[in-house]
Design brief:
The chain is an alpha+beta fold. It has three domains: 118 residues, Histone acetyl transferase 1 (HAT1), N-terminal domain (Histone Acetyltransferase, domain 1, Alpha-Beta Complex), CATH 3.90.360; 137 residues, Gcn5-related N-acetyltransferase (GNAT) (Aminopeptidase, 3-Layer(aba) Sandwich), CATH 3.40.630; 119 residues, no CATH class. Helices cover 40% and strands 21% of the residues. The strands form four sheets. Strands 8-9-10-11-12-13 form a six-stranded mixed beta sheet, with helices on one face. A three-stranded mixed beta sheet has the order 2-5-6. A hairpin with a 5-residue loop joins β5 and β6. The longest helix is centred in the C-terminal third of the chain and has 27 residues.
Length: 405
């Protein structure tokens, strides 16, 4: 029987062998500098993120810039033969990749077919209604132009396109899942880059998307929830994410039946963008004036943030804390102490809620021993609270610095 220790060199890290590329012209296929790697692979290849049974393996996924037709190119120097390793088989890469695709979507595996699809990509036009356009300058000093579109009613052509776009999320968003494109409550915001190709014609590249679900709110209202947002790596750090948020706000703020806007399980990066935008918008509201902020969080802030900007109550509290720090003189001991106490009061809310619950249970002669074991002692809580506050203030300071620019 073969010694399995000798197979260790055939266990490959999937993240390191998978490459993506957005292809605008046939020449791009030979430009390795344009390739980018996934952030994760466990949703395709399992928790270990390993691929077994190959030497010098490369998995390249090429997408046409606009319509995102996908070419899969799997190359390797050697694949193990199960006859030589007592029936041990190499992983079936194609099956793992294919099973991760939305229904009806498939890979092109013929390079010639993919190159032919590039001709159709030149004719690609954005889906939806254009909401906004903006220009930005890259680190290389190149001006780039972007457009954001809104889609509410979907066609089969859009479903096919969006399903291909969604294939990125399993590689870049943890715990991701495909949405039900037949559900009419979904709204779609898409960003495209408008660029001039080598023929001198304008063409579009798909940049990313955000989805919003319209939850029902009694009696005839909705509460839009931002569900997913992804900006593909070649287009990050260009202001696309913040422009997405602004356009989502602008769209729903103008609708009378919108109660407020919420966000589903936001990433840390998204949370920072949202906090900055919300704080910048609320800074001009009367209830968020310097004098009112120093009096403490108020119902007027909740009411005005919701009515004017569709910001939900929980988020308006965060904005209050950021803007109060903006106006707080941290070198004034009394002023700074009052600010810290205000933030810590929120951070301690759940802890004191648990204590009150235990107190009520004990009055009713209910055993609270197990519940007490799950919460920290007062001394432990003070230490935790100090660490929590420091982290909060550090995050807020980054936003305050941007607000001062």
């Amino acid at each position: 029987m073969a010694n399995l220790d000798h197979l260790q060199h055939l266990v490959l890290d999937a993240v390191s062998v998978v490459n993506f590329q957005i292809v605008r012209s046939a020449e791009d296929l030979d430009d390795d500098d344009q390739k980018f790697i996934p952030e994760m692979a466990h949703q395709i290849f399992g928790e270990s993120e390993n691929i077994f049974g190959y030497e010098d393996l490369s998995i390249d996924l090429y997408y046409t810039a606009g319509p995102l037709n996908i070419f899969l190119d799997i190359k390797y120097e050697k694949k193990i033969d199960e006859k030589d390793y007592d029936g041990i088989k190499a992983d079936d890469i194609l099956t793992s990749l294919t099973e991760s695709l939305p229904n009806g979507i498939c890979y092109l595996t013929n390079k010639g077919e993919f190159l032919k699809s590039l001709e159709d990509a030149e004719k690609f036009q954005p889906f939806g209604e254009k909401l906004h356009e903006f220009a930005t300058v890259s680190d290389e000093g190149v001006q780039r132009h972007f457009e954001i579109y809104f889609v509410e009613t979907v066609s089969q052509k859009f479903v096919n396109f969006f399903s291909r776009l969604e294939t990125f999320i399993l590689w870049f968003v943890d715990a991701a899942s495909y949405i039900d494109l037949d559900d009419p409550q979904w709204n779609y915001f898409l960003c495209y880059e408008k660029f001039m190709n080598k023929k001198g014609d304008f063409q579009y590249a798909t940049v990313g998307y955000s989805t919003v679900y319209k939850y029902y709110a009694y009696p005839e209202n909705i509460r839009p929830r931002i569900s997913q947002m992804i900006v593909l790596p070649p287009f990050q750090k260009l202001g696309v994410g913040s422009n997405f948020i602004k356009q989502i706000y602008d769209h729903y703020i103008g609708l009378k039946n919108v109660v407020d806007i919420t966000v589903e399980d936001p990433s840390e990066e998204f949370r920072k963008m949202r906090n900055f935008i919300d704080s910048k918008l609320c800074k001009d509201l009367k209830s968020f004036s310097e004098d009112n902020l120093k009096k403490g969080f108020s119902k007027d802030m909740v009411k005005e943030a919701r009515s004017e900007l569709k910001i939900n109550p929980k988020q308006s509290r965060i904005v209050y804390e950021i803007l109060r720090l903006f106006y707080t003189n941290v070198h004034d001991e009394g002023e700074y102490k009052n600010y810290r106490l205000s933030v810590k009061q929120r951070l301690n809310y759940h802890y004191y809620k648990q204590l009150r619950c235990i107190e009520k249970m004990e009055k009713l002669k209910i055993d609270t021993q197990m519940m007490k074991a799950t919460i920290p002692s007062p001394e432990q809580r003070l230490e935790q609270l100090d660490q929590e506050y420091k982290q909060v203030e550090e995050n807020y300071e980054l936003i305050v610095d941007k607000l001062k620019d």
